[in-house]
Amino acid sequence: xxxxxxxxxxxxxxxxxxxxxxxxxxxxxxxxxxxxxxxxxxxxxxxxxxxxxxxxxxxxx
Length: 61
Description:
4-OT-like_dom; isomerase activity; 4-oxalocrotonate tautomerase; isomerase
């Protein structure tokens, strides 16, 4: 059972998340040859003031 974890700052809509998990699941089915029902996708969200890149908080960008 493949599992995909996506780490992202909060702020995406439910529609965006639906599209992402659909596309990731389809890629797993295509490339790993597994049934869609066996693919788990988890989106782990962090507040923009709890995530940084290059030493700068996302909330400060």
